[in-house]
């Protein structure tokens, strides 16, 4: 499973579990318009750390906070290598 498909699956699963309406996931989708809240994102980041073995937000390397879904995916792709 690719990093992007893993992330997409987590967004969809967390949206279902949190009874959220998830916007259509495209690279241009702004995360604040995704339909998810901060708790949803915290759950996603924790689960991605379990499944991908990385947490780019806890890295010693400086990272820019992702603004779009595409930014989020690229951040994980960069650290998952």
Structural topology:
Elements: H1 3-17, H2 38-52, H3 69-79
Helix pairs in contact: 1-2
Give the N-terminus to C-terminus distance in angstroms: 14 Å
Number of helices: 3
Q: From the helix content, strand content and strand pairing, which structural class follows?
A: mainly alpha
Helix content: 40-55%
Q: Which runs of at least 5 residues are low in confidence (pLDDT < 50)?
A: none
Number of strands: 0
Q: Mean pLDDT, as a whole number?
A: 95
Along the chain, the helix and strand elements come as HHH
Shape category: globular
Radius of gyration: 12 Å
Main sheet: strands, sense, barrel: none
Strand content: under 5%
Summary tags:
81 residues; globular; mainly alpha
């Amino acid at each position: 499973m690719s990093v992007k498909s893993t992330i997409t699956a987590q967004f969809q699963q967390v949206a279902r579990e949190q009874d959220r309406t998830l916007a259509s996931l495209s690279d241009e989708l702004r995360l604040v318009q995704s339909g998810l809240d901060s708790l949803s994102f915290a759950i996603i980041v924790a689960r991605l750390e379990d499944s991908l073995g990385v947490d780019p937000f806890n890295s010693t390397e400086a990272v820019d906070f992702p603004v779009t879904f595409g930014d989020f995916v690229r951040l994980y792709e960069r650290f998952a290598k």
